[in-house]
Design brief:
Elements: H1 2-6, H2 10-24, H3 29-35, E1 38-50, H4 52-57, E2 62-74, E3 77-88, E4 98-100, E5 105-107, E6 113-128, E7 140-158, H5 167-172, E8 192-210, E9 215-226, E10 244-257
Antiparallel strand pairs: 1-2, 1-10, 2-3, 3-6, 4-5, 6-7, 7-8, 8-9, 9-10
């Protein structure tokens, strides 16, 4: 219920901006009748950059790819259904150290793995800003993108050393000793998993440029807000993440066809 209340404004806003685009377009009747009802399919490549606390977990950019289906109710608006996948690798647990009490030393987890995968379905409204926008070859139009949907994510950590192990437990687990003869930690924690299908919203700006009358290049940048969370790892000074926030930049092609 908290997720639904938090995103209660998104769906009405999406409907309002799409309806506004349709209403404004009624002034150009001739061209509306030509493009009204067109459909399109597209694909895109890009990257996600994690922001704020999520950026503390994953520093690198995630490769992102996806598909979309488009419906054109008027020259001023597109309705788009989007699916995309992305993955973050080499999270902070692979490189950060923790303090181990028995030896008063800081240690990394040498075999640790920390990754996060996304599978997302979104509905977007694209509102075009250029007056008299067409879908003809060599034309271009900037637009505002507003969307909402679901992010299914899965963050998994494995082979992370257990900070509260004793020297005896470390020795029994096969831990060796360092150059000074001090015991090295060896007990690993049970793999952890943060997984959820969470509501999301996005807001962005893009540009659509037609190469031919039916093929368009689409470039956009977006801010994404996901109502999901990741558990804290306090021994590594990683705070709980809520919400998940990301910036994405993508480039793709759209292929339009008549009704």
């Amino acid at each position: 219920m908290r997720q639904l209340r938090s995103l209660g404004w998104v769906i009405p806003l999406l409907l309002v901006v799409v309806w506004a685009g349709v209403g404004q377009a009624q002034e150009t009747k001739g061209y509306i009748e030509e493009v009204k009802g067109r459909w399109g399919v597209g694909g895109f490549l890009g990257y996600n950059r994690p922001m704020f606390k999520l950026g503390d977990r994953f520093k690198g950019d995630a490769n992102k790819f996806g598909l979309n289906i488009n419906y054109v109710p008027s020259p001023k608006a597109n309705i788009e259904v989007e699916y995309h996948r992305a993955k973050f690798q080499h999270g902070a647990l692979e490189t950060r150290t923790f303090f181990w009490g028995p030896t008063k030393q800081n240690y990394k987890s040498p075999n640790a793995s920390y990754t996060m995968k996304f599978n997302s379905i979104l509905m977007n409204g694209l509102i075009y800003l250029r007056k008299g926008r067409t879908m003809l070859a060599h034309s271009f139009s900037p637009y505002i993108a507003v969307g909402a949907g679901f992010y299914d994510y899965n963050a998994v950590s494995t082979n992370v050393l257990y900070p509260s192990q004793t020297e005896k437990e470390a020795a029994l687990a096969g831990g060796g000793k360092d150059a000074q003869g001090k015991q090295l930690p060896a007990v690993v924690m049970t793999p952890s998993q943060d997984t959820q299908t969470a509501l999301s919203a996005n807001l962005g700006f893009g540009m659509e440029a037609f190469i031919t009358n039916s093929v368009a290049l689409d470039v956009r940048a977006r801010y994404n807000f996901v109502i999901g969370e990741l558990r804290p790892f306090e021994d590594w000074k990683l705070q709980k993440v809520f919400p998940l926030q990301l910036f994405d930049l993508s480039t793709g092609l759209k292929f339009y066809f008549w009704q």
